[in-house]
């Protein structure tokens, strides 16, 4: 877990119920959920196995151990979890080295949060090596804190990553807005007690208490996030 400038004394956050914004990475800020699936298909093809398209919804948004473990069990591939993890991370790192498209509205939202000094964290199930590569495109200066999936005892769907991010920023989880694209990430944020904005990328997510669903980050700005917190009161 890395941190820079974890402060709450910001000109926009003061006097507001919103203390921090916590953002998922794959499928939320960067259009990479499809990259993971493509890499998984390629790696298992090299092992002599064809992945069923329906499995995509099982592995999306999950930690590497869960998704890789599921695919090994489902295919019966002769490979260990550690060996497969290396192959998947290598393949993904190669892909993001060639292209890394941002999700619509991501760049504008990050710039706005930075301009108004809103404490912001990147919270991902991806490993640190992947996050650090992606940060070169997202701009590390946009985040006061980053939490990787291999740096917490339990990653998503457990609340640990979001609890760690809130604590690292000195914020109350209930006063943090989390932006996620998968049911796994939403479950983690809600278990941590955060207010959630879901931007579904691969599978639908239904609205619920403390959860607002939008179709794109282009619908999300600082006014929108402050409004969510105002509704909580």
UniProtKB/TrEMBL annotation:
Gene3D superfamilies per the UniProt record, alphabetical: HAD superfamily/HAD-like, Putative phosphatase, domain 2
SUPFAM superfamilies for the chain: HAD-like
InterPro entries: HAD-like_sf (IPR036412), HAD-SF_hydro_IA (IPR006439), HAD_sf (IPR023214), PGP-like_dom2 (IPR023198)
Coiled coil: none
Residues making up the signal peptide according to the UniProt record: none
Identification of the protein by name: HAD family phosphatase
Highest classification ranks of the organism: Bacteria, Bacillati, Actinomycetota, Actinomycetes, Kitasatosporales
